[in-house]
TrEMBL record:
Keyword Glycosyltransferase recorded: no
Binding residue positions for ATP: 30-37, 147-150, 184-187
Protein name per the record: Pantothenate synthetase
Other noteworthy facts: The reaction proceeds by a bi uni uni bi ping pong mechanism.
UniProt keyword list: ATP-binding, Cytoplasm, Ligase, Nucleotide-binding, Pantothenate biosynthesis
Amino acid sequence: MQTVRDLEQLRAAIAAFRAEGLSVALVATMGALHAGHMALVEAAKARADRVVTSIFVNPRQFGPNEDLSRYPRRERADADMLEAAGCALLWMPPVEVMYPAGFATTVSVTGVSDGLDGASRPGHFDGVATVVSKLFNQVRPDFALFGEKDYQQLAVIRRMVADLDMGIEIVGVPTQRDEDGLALSSRNIYLTEQEREAARMLPRALGEAARAISGGTAVATALERAEAALARAGFDPIDYVALCDAETLQPVDDLERPARLMAAARIGGTRLIDNLAVEAESVAQ
Ligand code: PAF
């Protein structure tokens, strides 16, 4: 695996793939890799001849009181995992390469970015859309893979790619979970033992609500029960538990179209998010 940190080297490496007629898939990450990221790499390998992984902790998607300075950084271990997984190229731009002096552009996707995490974390999705646009322009992949755990991020990127005719196939990869159901996240390492124990209530409460809604329980009732269960487990604040249209992410109160149950809540100092697909009479993960 080749590791590159400047644009010239990146472009030369991508040009070499293209000269051989090879297809390219991008896995964009902020590092601190875990099995969820490795599932993206595996899915990328299944689709394209060469996998490019980026590691860039993007300051523009962190709010002023968020965890940018303490976000886990483990370059060596990440590189070893990617090499072992068969990633061809690791793109690790420094901040000044991604955002040189004078950088003045923001990519903003309205509508799908507005509610849920967009409301709780103002500016977050502008930061994501801006850096992902840059990564797409830098790598020019055929495919890009994103985890369904960050479901709103996936919806924002799909909208952006469609709106801006980027011509990249966006592939959503199902959430990877620990044995007790907790969605894998680089932020799980912040949890104390006690918080980790309580955290499993998040997937459990969502699963119960999803089953109840599928079985005909009123959406408002199921959401209230899920919020109460999270509060009892110690989540505070609960930013949202909401049933949304799976594409637009507008709140819905029936299952006429594919829907997604979305939640974000804080346990101790750590904000966790999760989501599940909900269908009438059956729940698909
Ligand atoms: O999901 C992430 O790790 C980040 O939001 C992404 C897509 C790499 C953009 O910084």
